[in-house]
Amino acid sequence: MDWETELIDSFETLVHRDFPNPQRIGCPGHDSLVGLAASLGDAQSRMVLAHIRQCAPCFDELKALRRKTKS
Hints:
Elements: H1 3-18, H2 30-37, H3 43-52, H4 56-70
């Protein structure tokens, strides 16, 4: 396992434990996550990324979208 994969896996454990957010309160929406998964580096993406650090469902959706865009 490379360092990036290990870091993401560790972050995934943390965000699911500390920020489960099952009702998805304050989530930025699917289109914002699609933009972030495509690596758009603007202010909106930074705000979405800040949210993802505190929302397990959005983290999961982003992770799935990133996998999909890499295939």
